[in-house]
Amino acid sequence: DGSDTEVITIVAGASTCGSDLGVSADGGSLADNYPCGVSIVIEGATADGPTLSLPADMPAGACFAVKLFSADDIAWLTEEIFSANMDAAAIKAFKWGRKWLVVTSILSLEVSGLTSPLNVTSGPIIAASGVPTRRRLLAKCPAGYEYRMGTVGATFADACKCPSACDAASAACPTKVGGNWTAILVPAAACLDADAEDWDYTGAIVGGVVGVGL
User: Fold this and answer.
1) Measured between alpha carbons, how far is residue 199 from residues 28, 84, 195 in Å?
2) CA-to-CA distance for 170 and 127, rounded, in angstroms?
3) CB 167 within 8 A of CB 139
4) For the ranges 43-52, 103-112, 123-132, 167-176, which has the lowest average pLDDT?
5) What residues are paired with 106 via a beta bridge?
6) In what helix (H) or strand (E) does residue 87 lie, and over which residues does it extend?
7) pLDDT value at 194 more than 60
8) Edge-to-edge strands of the sheet including 63-69?
9) How far apart are CA 204 and CA 214, in angstroms?
10) Which residue, 59, 120, 135, 182, has fewest beta-carbon neighbours within 10 Å?
11) Where are the beta strands (DSSP E) in 141-197?
């Protein structure tokens, strides 16, 4: 039930491998020491920021590094003009920008060697009232839109590979892919035929680089 999950603090930006967490270097996994996996706390992060949880079967040789950024730290692509009247193909291919954010922090992740996905969770959602122009207090999805995790520079269709977080305090996504992860507002039309059974996020990360690399 996750109650025995170990909480470990790491240094932001530093590469951390399974072997650094007490996993045997002869090919063991976190399950050797932490059957329920590991929840990561980034040194200096606020309590309400995004979080990262590692799978129990993370191999000794798998490694990850994380940093936290604000929207001001990211080099955003010039966003195209969005219209809810665009056809489904155009909405899916739309590369969302800064105005679609519904959280205040972005988790920049590098990862290698995973055999199972880790879980990325956003900070608290700042609820939207529709196409991103206004915000309200209750985290309900506005009509025609959903909250999902996504990576900066990717498309709405890529974000559809993460589960919807309507009425949730935060969004989350299992992933084996690095990138700049955050919660965004996604048009429901982009996800109408998404594969709801495959949450292994493998969307291509295109454009959108952080101002300070890992």
Assistant:
1) 25, 26, 8
2) 10
3) yes
4) 123-132
5) 69
6) none
7) no
8) 16-17, 63-69, 106-112, 179-187, 145-151
9) 19
10) 135
11) 145-151, 172-175, 179-187
At residue 75's C-alpha, the angle toward residues 198 and 98, to 5°, is: 60
pTM here? 0.84
Residues 116-163 have pLDDT tens digits of 999 999 999 987 766 654 444 445 788 889 999 999 999 999 999 999
Collapsing DSSP states into helix, strand and coil, what is residue 63? strand
What distances in angstroms separate CA 95 from CA 117, 154, 183, 207, one per listed residue? 24, 6, 14, 10
Instruction: Say what the alpha-carbon torsion angle 70, 159, 2, 40 is, to the nearest 10 degrees.
Output: -30
Cβ–Cβ under 8 Å, residues 58 and 36:
no
Q: In terms of pLDDT, which residue wins out, 25 or 9?
A: 9
